[in-house]
Amino acid sequence: MAGDGLCIYFCGSIRGGRGDADIYQQLITHLQSFGKVLTEHVGSKEVNEKGVIKEDAGMSDKEIHDRDIMWLEMSNVVVAEVTTTSLGVGYELGRAVAMKKKILCLFRPTPDKRLSAMIEGAKNCDNFEVVHYSDVYEGFTAISTFMKTL
Ligand SMILES: O=c1[nH]c(=O)n([C@H]2C[C@H](O)[C@@H](COP(=O)(O)O)O2)cc1CO
C-alpha cells in the first residue's frame, strides 16, 4: 500500500532536546519515498534562541497541539524516533494508539539509555512495532521493512 496518498506522521524530540535532529532529517528524507511526511519540520535544523523550531515560530502552543493532533488523525502511519526522551513524542504515541494507527518506534540503545517500558512494552504483533537500531542505515531498513507490512 506504500505509495501515492500515504500520509506519514513522524515524531521526534523538539523541546526534549535536539541532539538527534540530524538523524530525524535523514529518516524523514527516507520516509518521503513512501508518502507525504506531514511533520517534516521535526527534522528542521533551524531552531531559534528560545529553542523554537523556525517553522513553528509565531504559533501558540495550542495552535501547535491542535495542528499536530489534526495531522495525527489524517495520517495512515506513525513513525517515531524515540531515542531522545520527549514528553511530546510520548503523548503523540499514546494518542496514536488510541486512534488505532500503525506505529513504528525506532530506538538506538546505548549503555546509559533504556527505552521507557511504556513504549518498549507497548510492542505487539498487530500495530505497534519497536525496532532497536544502531545507525541511520539500519533505520532506513527498518522503515522499508515496516512499509512493506502496510
Ligand atoms: O514546536 C513544536 N512543534 C511540534 O510539532 N511538536 C510536536 C512534534 C514532535 O514529534 C513532538 C516533540 O515534542 P517535545 O517538544 O515535547 O519534544 O511534538 C512539538 C513542539 C514543541 O513542543
UniProtKB/TrEMBL annotation:
Enzyme class (EC, first level): hydrolase
Assigned EC number: 3.2.2.-
Primary localization class, coarse: cytoplasm
Subcellular location: Cytoplasm; Nucleus
Source organism, top-level taxon: Eukaryota
Catalysed reaction equations from the record: a pyrimidine 2'-deoxyribonucleoside 5'-phosphate + H2O = a pyrimidine nucleobase + 2-deoxy-D-ribose 5-phosphate; 5-hydroxymethyl-dUMP + H2O = 5-hydroxymethyluracil + 2-deoxy-D-ribose 5-phosphate; a purine 2'-deoxyribonucleoside 5'-phosphate + H2O = a purine nucleobase + 2-deoxy-D-ribose 5-phosphate
Family: Belongs to the 2'-deoxynucleoside 5'-phosphate N-hydrolase 1 family.
Protein name as annotated: Putative 2'-deoxynucleoside 5'-phosphate N-hydrolase 1
Protein species of origin: Ciona savignyi (Pacific transparent sea squirt)
